[in-house]
Amino acid sequence: MKKVLPPLNALRAFEAAGRLGSFKEAAAELHVTQGAVSQHVRLLETWLGAPLFERHNRRVKLTPAAKDYLEKVGPLFEQLAQATARYGLPETVSRTLSVNAPATFTLRWLVPRLATFRAGHPDVEVAVETSNGPLESLKEDYDVVIRGGPDTFYGYSMRPFLSEERLPVCSPALLERLPLRVPGDLRQHTLLHTSSLPRLWPDWLASVQLPALRPAAALTFDHFYLTLQAAIDGIGIAMGPTALVSDDLAAGRLVAPFDGPRLPSRSYCTYVADTKVGDERVVLFRSWLEQQGRAS
């Protein structure tokens, strides 16, 4: 005899909303929109032919019959999770770890180091997507999100792993053509800007008491990695984040003509949904990032 089962996604939404007493909190736990949870619950109510919740402004309350239903359904999800954990991951199941990180950070810091992670953990595939948008605007459910911080987001664990400051950097060849002995010598140079970070040069010049300094020229790029590449190519002087230019400074592709001052900057942090904090792949990748951050 064919077993009759309710729509399982709808049942999962009902279980989370009933246990938490809130569609909003259920949506955060399931990493979907509040509207999606509401739609799933309505679908289950239609399928059952009976209401499941009493709606009260921002909270919801189970009907007596739904409360009894939840007491029977809830343990089934826990049993399913335990059975799956005991069974383990089949070899055919993907071990891909999805990561979302800012483009310049990915290009200049993460990609050059990823080979060491792969060497240490060959069974974990890493899929990296770049985005500079805020965490709450991301539509995909990533395992690890890298952004500036520290910030607090509901339902997410945050851990900093890489700190940085900002200071002027340029190519050694540029200094040979036009030496920089004091900050005032910047009047002879081209200053490189990034449209999304317009305050970097004004703030640094103000810190050396030269707020009205007018350079020989200025050039603005829409991406920070283009600004840094222009500095490497000897086009001008950029405000370089120490974390992202450390390899170039070590290799001699860039130099820092002044010891200071350095502008403070936000740290790089990992943001992981609370439901994924214990994932073995996430734990390994976070620990590796923190180790690399200390080494940098």
TrEMBL record:
The gene is gcvA. Keywords: DNA-binding, Transcription, Transcription regulation. Gene3D superfamilies: Periplasmic binding protein-like II, Winged helix-like DNA-binding domain superfamily/Winged helix DNA-binding domain. Belongs to the LysR transcriptional regulatory family. NCBIfam families: PRK11139.1. The keyword DNA-binding applies. Residues 6-63 form the HTH lysR-type domain. Signal peptide: none annotated. This is Transcriptional regulator GcvA. CDD domains: PBP2_GcdR_TrpI_HvrB_AmpR_like.
